[in-house]
Design goal:
This protein folds into three domains: 8-169 and 238-345, Alpha/Beta hydrolase fold, catalytic domain (Rossmann fold), CATH 3.40.50.1820; 177-236, no CATH class; 354-566, Jelly Rolls (Sandwich). 18% of the residues lie in helices and 29% in strands. It contains twelve helices and 25 strands. A hairpin with a 4-residue loop joins strand 13 and strand 14.
Length: 573
């Protein structure tokens, strides 16, 4: 059967208005096969290194479409998924990354996966049990291993299903210039050669606070890659070499991205979706790519009950040519938090968005939730600024949000217990008269000055319930030296007012009538992010710290304001 991955004119026909999401549906592949299970199958790389694969395939004559997982970690669910697809007429190869488990060579996180992934696809496509049609699978690191080889253009590769992954590792390990410390330490310090896997450090582990930070790294062996991440604390050729930010035009195949609103990679997921759909190198990549975003934290897509069914429909269409309607569904499926409903959408941001500006206001005493900070739709004309002292020795603790680990503090948590701190400026709206849906990218424009030569600025959006709970919605951070560029950071002049654009990432959330919208401004979110020591020296190299006296402006000349993507009431798509 011809694959739609090869028949692009056919794809355009299928994507036209001549069909609808439920037209001419075909049933999914059925579990009719017994399985052949082969372990430690050598997969040769061009440089002579052999990777090891665990191959599941139907115990039947003929050739089958092939699914590939290039993995740095093993987990039982991978084998369960492999059996699921093998029973339904797919060969599945679980390939260990170079230097991991049964694979030869030296493991350097991420660096070898683009070429190794391509080589593995070239080998799999020529096996006697493969029909030369390859799709990929995997989550997190194993989602990134799907997109990294895609620009190299294996002719066998036809589609991807990357879950919870990034477009560049700089976007993963650094957020607008600020290191995601818990990821670097919990993944980087504990994942080495062979079969070791990461360890979750308690949020109060002393390594997070060790100064200089590179001294904490020195406590662990085989972590040169972590030192490299510190050394490349800006977006440069090191990150570009294996990321895909500049390479979308070389990608010929579509992807079905999956992530969660509280996933620490949701922002990167949307970047990937936009990159494929706007810059992809073929009609298949641009028109065929989709994204699904649920209410999950990192790893949460595994809990989606329809996961395997969605993946099966995707592979059936792209690898078997089954007309099951998935190609004509809208490209975006999101979970709207509040009413807790799924909804299809056609574009991102949504075309019907009305961008609402909420200006921060106060009489100069917005410190803590008992201060006088307000959010209003009208800007101030002449108001005194708000001030606070950011002390790196006493950072604002992470509570809620997109931290990748620590179930006790990540996700949709109540932040009211930290909002009394005087180093957090709090601005709260009046109670809403009616429900307000906020769906799309959330941004904050800040005008501020610091006594330091470098510092960070954080912004957190929360939903204040009538009972006083302040439920985390989304958050962002901006390194002051990265205010203009991630490639060429520059220090700030103490006392000078600068404009900072802070992305609070993306969300889909309904603030209920009677609830209030709250914005926090501070300078730390620890241990999710490394503390800025306010001294302007290279990350991880110094044990010096200084207190930064911060000034936030809100007046006619410097109208600091939140921008919310408000969706008018009515039916979605």
């Amino acid at each position: 059967m011809n694959s739609p991955g090869r028949q692009f004119p056919c794809l355009l026909l299928l994507l036209s208005a001549c069909s609808s999401p439920d037209s001419d549906p075909a049933g999914p592949s059925q579990p009719v096969h017994e399985i052949i299970d082969e372990s430690k199958v050598p997969v040769p790389m061009q440089d002579g290194v052999n990777l090891a694969a665990h191959v599941y395939r139907p115990d039947a004559p003929g050739k089958f479409p092939t699914l590939m997982l290039l993995r740095y970690f093993r987990a039982p669910f991978q084998n369960e998924h492999a059996e699921y697809f093998a029973k339904r007429g797919y060969a599945v190869a679980l390939v260990d990354s170079r230097g991991r488990y049964d694979s030869d060579g030296k493991w350097v996180p991420y660096v070898n996966e683009p070429r190794d992934g391509y080589d593995a696809q070239q080998w799999l496509g020529q096996q006697p049990w493969s029909n030369g049609e390859i799709g990929t699978m995997g989550i997190s690191y194993n989602g990134f291993t799907q997109v990294m080889p895609a620009p190299l253009g294996s002719p066998y590769l036809k589609c991807l299903v990357p879950r919870e992954n990034q477009q560049t590792n700089f976007g993963h390990l650094y957020n607008d210039g600020v290191m995601q410390l818990n990821v670097v330490f919990e993944f980087g310090l504990f994942t080495k050669q062979g079969s070791q896997t990461q360890k979750i450090l308690p949020s109060e582990d002393p390594h997070y606070r060790r100064l200089p930070l590179l001294a904490a790294v020195d406590d662990f062996p085989q972590v040169q890659h972590v030192k490299d991440w510190f050394a490349h604390a800006k977006y440069d050729e090191y990150w570009q070499a294996y990321g895909i930010k500049e390479k979308y035009g070389q990608i010929q195949v579509p992807a079905y991205f999956m992530t969660g609103w509280y996933d620490n990679l949701v922002h990167e997921g949307w970047r990937n979706f936009k990159g494929f759909t706007e810059e992809g190198g073929s009609e298949a990549a641009r028109k065929g790519t989709k994204i699904l975003v649920g209410p999950w934290v990192h790893g949460g897509t595994n809990s989606y009950p329809e996961l395997l069914g969605v993946e099966l429909r995707w592979y059936d269409y792209w690898l078997k040519g089954i007309r099951n309607g998935i190609d004509t569904e809208p490209p975006i499926k999101i979970f709207v938090m509040g009413p807790d409903v799924w909804r299809f959408e056609n574009e991102w941001p949504l075309a019907r968005t009305r961008y609402a500006k909420y200006y921060i206001r106060s009489s100069g005493k917005a410190n803590g939730d008992q201060g006088d900070g307000t959010l209003m739709s009208s800007p101030a004309q002449d108001e005194p600024p708000d001030r606070y002292a950011y002390d790196p020795e006493n950072p604002v603790p992470t509570l809620g949000g997109q931290i990748s680990t620590h179930g006790e503090i990540r996700g949709r948590k109540d932040r009211s217990s930290v909002q009394s701190r005087k180093d957090i400026l709090v601005y709260t709206s009046e109670p809403l008269e009616r429900d307000m849906e906020v769906t799309g990218p959330v941004d904050f424009k800040l005008y501020a000055a610091s006594s330091a030569v470098d510092t960070d600025w954080t912004a957190t959006l929360s939903d204040v319930h009538p009972d006083g709970q302040a439920i985390h919605v989304c958050e962002g951070i901006r390194g002051a030296r990265f205010r203009d560029s991630l490639e060429t950071p520059t220090l700030i002049e103490p006392g000078k007012i600068y404009e900072y654009n802070i992305s609070l990432w993306e969300t889909s959330y309904v603030f209920k009538a009677g609830h209030r919208i709250r914005l926090e401004i501070s300078s730390s979110n620890f241990p999710r992010f490394a503390r800025n020591q306010n001294i302007g020296e290279s990350l991880g190299t110094s044990d010096k710290i200084t207190v930064a006296n911060q000034t936030v402006y809100h007046n006619a000349q410097y109208p600091s304001h939140l921008v919310l993507p408000v969706i008018p009431p009515g039916n979605g798509n």
